[in-house]
Amino acid sequence: MKKCLILAASLCTTPAFAEDALNLSASTRVRYENIEGQPRVGFNESDALFSVRNILTGEYRTGNWQFEAELYDSRAYGAVDGTPLSTADVNAFELVQAYIGYEARGAFGSGTKFNVQAGRFMLSLGSRRLVSSDDSRNTTNGYTGVRADIGLRDGLSATLIYALPQVRLPDGRSDLVRNRIQMDRESFDLVLWGGLIGQKRPSARDGIELSFYHLDERDSADLATRDRALSTAGFRIYRDAAPGSISYESETMYQFGSISAALTPAAPQLDVSAWFTHLELGYSLDRAWAPHVSLEFDYASGDGRGTKFGRFDTLFGMRRADFAPSGLYSAVGRSNLIATGVRLEVTPSKRLDAFAAYRALWLASGYDSFSTTGVRDAAGSSGRFAGHQFEARLRYWLVPKRLRLEWSALILTKGRFLETAPNAPVSGNTLYNALNATISF
Question: pLDDT over 90 for what percent of the chain?
């Protein structure tokens, strides 16, 4: 903590050596959320939580060099016994970023560039479905290692990483409730490496990406794990939205490797064979409010009764953009899921935007737990339909670039599986609301 205090103080006192060379920024987000009819196993039927996230960022540039540090202070209040409180909500006074970067233009000829950074940093790569630093959640994902970005002519680019994902601490219930300060840990017990190659011409809206990531996880002295050794290969094509035009996205990933059957050291290793696909087709109307409507389909495999482990692991991927809010809800993620739906987005003005979405939800495997709810029927006799999810969000800049208000709401009408599975909470349909206010400095 002492090192964090010294660095935070230095960010605020370092002189600006040249105009725009030193940039300081900060933000505070407060959120109140409540839920009725919790669909996840082991938590209160109804609950509420108040969270605060403060971010302080300092960046200094000189020539081709860049130095950046970013401090996150994520805290939650009002948790009681049975509240689903975790390191997704609390990570107090953490130096998530502290890196040095160097950029060389023309490294591979005219119009090319090469950028490398080393230290602690955040990552959001490609579609962010495997590697991201979540901004919607109260805490974020940090990584420690080396990243290299290569930009070539004709829109060809590549990103390579070798990183140790930061394990957020503390993770004990009592420490989380008290918002205890403890530095996150990175070690070679958890390693992520790989990258992606993409092509997108500056004048075009179409893009293509090939990606590959490998995750190695093993037990440490303090933590027993599933000893994952997972490789994930992906292919993505997309077209960005534009007024009066069709947009689309297709991404498919195949995951293979091994995982322990349980946390115990003697647990047998299982071969992994899992996959995920996202399909989206949209159209933007060229008229007031810029309405954009899209049809969406997601499939994430689940574990069955075979000899191989079939549940797709989203690694460090985001949740909010594709599925639903995290926080007290966090019921729908990229595992054992089939989701079809429609989304409508509008932007009435520069200060106001909104969307509404509907999804029908099924289990990919009737023997595995549904997505991230923990609800399971090992006999597979409770059907596969999970329910209907209705969602909406409204955001408004009360003071442009300084104060933004946000309201999110979700209704889940439970289907047969979430009502009849042996461990399904007897809590009725789900109603979730969240109010946010973000102040930027």
Answer: 88
